[in-house]
């Protein structure tokens, strides 16, 4: 599966693909140390918040690509248009998203996160970061700082506009 807006593997130079493959395998190893903490916490939070995995996925997509049409959200979440519309209606009723007419195309609806929707994601982010903190806190501080520097360099290339204005995140 290729995430939206990324080139297919055949469009990437071989040297980049090889380096990315090595990094991908390294990240998979790292993920093994984190995933049980993250997934267990996520399951607890979804139950506590009475959210389905699909609803959480939609909230995350809206945070990244808001506002979005129902059609775009349907494609990004891989749900049928009726299923996405029904899911969004439940999120609207809970006050986590808004749905309004698209001023450029009155037949379309635009959906966006509300403050309450952002708060739900921030709560989940805090638990997610907590899993990383509890895992990394036992490591050598110099190793952590070196890894953070390299990860920031990766993120600066992935998010060039955000690199200039990105404040340090704290938990």
TrEMBL record:
> Taxonomically, which superkingdom?
Bacteria
Name the Gene Ontology biological process terms: response to stress
Q: Which Gene3D superfamilies match?
A: Winged helix-like DNA-binding domain superfamily/Winged helix DNA-binding domain
* Start and end residues of each HTH marR-type domain: 20-160
Q: What does the UniProt keyword field contain?
A: DNA-binding, Transcription, Transcription regulation
CDD domains for this protein:
HTH_ARSR
SMART domains, A to Z: HTH_MARR
Q: Which GO terms describe its molecular function?
A: DNA binding; DNA-binding transcription factor activity
Q: Which InterPro entries match?
A: ArsR-like_HTH, HTH_MarR-typ, MarR/SlyA-like, Tscrpt_reg_MarR-type_CS, WH-like_DNA-bd_sf, WH_DNA-bd_sf
* Protein known as: MarR family transcriptional regulator
């Amino acid at each position: 599966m290729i995430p939206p807006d990324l080139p297919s593997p055949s469009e990437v130079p071989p040297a980049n693909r090889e380096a990315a493959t090595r990094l991908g395998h390294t990240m998979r190893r790292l993920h093994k140390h984190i995933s049980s903490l993250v997934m267990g916490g996520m399951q607890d939070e979804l139950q506590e918040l009475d959210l389905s995995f699909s609803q959480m996925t939609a909230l995350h997509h809206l945070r990244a690509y808001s506002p979005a049409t129902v059609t775009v959200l349907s494609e990004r979440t891989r749900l049928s248009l009726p299923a996405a519309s029904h899911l969004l209606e439940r999120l609207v009723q809970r006050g986590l998203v808004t749905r309004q007419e698209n001023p450029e195309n009155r037949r379309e609806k635009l959906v966006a996160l509300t403050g309450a929707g952002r708060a739900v994601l921030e709560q989940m982010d805090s638990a997610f970061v907590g899993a990383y903190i509890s895992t990394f806190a036992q490591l050598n501080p110099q190793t952590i700082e070196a890894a953070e520097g390299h990860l920031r360099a990766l993120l600066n290339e992935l998010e060039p506009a955000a690199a200039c204005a990105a404040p340090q995140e704290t938990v």
